[in-house]
Amino acid sequence: MTRYGMAIDKKRCVACNTCCVACKIENNLPQDMWWNRVINEGGPNPDSPAGTYPSLTMTTYTLSCQHCANPACVPVCPTGATTKDPETGIVMIDPHICIGCKACIDACPYGVRTLQADEPVYYTAFNIGGDGIQDHVPNTVEKCTFCAHRVVNGEVPFCVEVCPARARVFGDLDDPNSDISKLIASRDYEQLLPEAGTEPSIYLLV
Asked: How far apart are CA 76 and CA 105, in angstroms?
């Protein structure tokens, strides 16, 4: 059994948004939909610090589905559209079963899901993205899939592959000899809202 997770090195990440744009292209996301985004813990605008000069502070991190070991979204889904794959630990939403009730949106403590309320509108007149990507269906909820269509073929999520700072590491959290497990063991890290009891599979290395 495998439990996939991701470590994101905050010392390496420069908040360049490459991972966000790559995710959008690889998964052919509709307009105005983002599965991955940069969060600025500073001022109200991107790249703006908090405080008053010279006492300024700013830090950033990327936010997407945490693919929790104990996901709050799964038990509240009335149709069984939201599931955690027992073989990989990846949390998925089946767009052909989802009814857009938003129960999972309300249950998720991380705010990483989006309702595709209307017929998807795209930037191009032709499909882009990788083979086997998730369909985009009106009145369904969407989120990061850890690029499950790539993982099943032995590849890493596209955001990991394209990160110019090599700030993202993907692998099996249950394998103590995997690169990600060794990295987490050797570094201090943060996890988002650990008090929620969801056991997120994303580690922010500090």
From this structure: 10
Each residue's pLDDT tens digit, 39-54: 988 877 777 888 888 9
Q: Which two tokens stand for residue 66?
A: 């945490």
Residues 109-150: tens digit of each pLDDT: 999 999 999 999 999 999 899 999 999 999 999 999 999 999
| Distance (Å, whole) CA 81 – CA 140 | 10
Domain ranges of the chain: 15-66+75-167
Question: Is the pTM for the entire model greater than 0.85?
Answer: yes
**CB contact at 8 A, 127 and 28:** yes
Residues 6+ apart with CB under 8 A from 150: 26, 130, 156, 157, 158
CATH of the domain spanning 15-66+75-167 = 3.30.70
Q: Between the CA of residue 94 and those of 74, 140, 199, what are the distances in Å? A: 12, 9, 22
Tell me how many degrees the CA angle 102-127-171 measures, rounded to the nearest 5.
Answer: 65
Amino acid symbol at 54: P
pLDDT for 168-199, tens place per residue?
Answer: 999 999 999 999 999 999 999 999 999 999 99
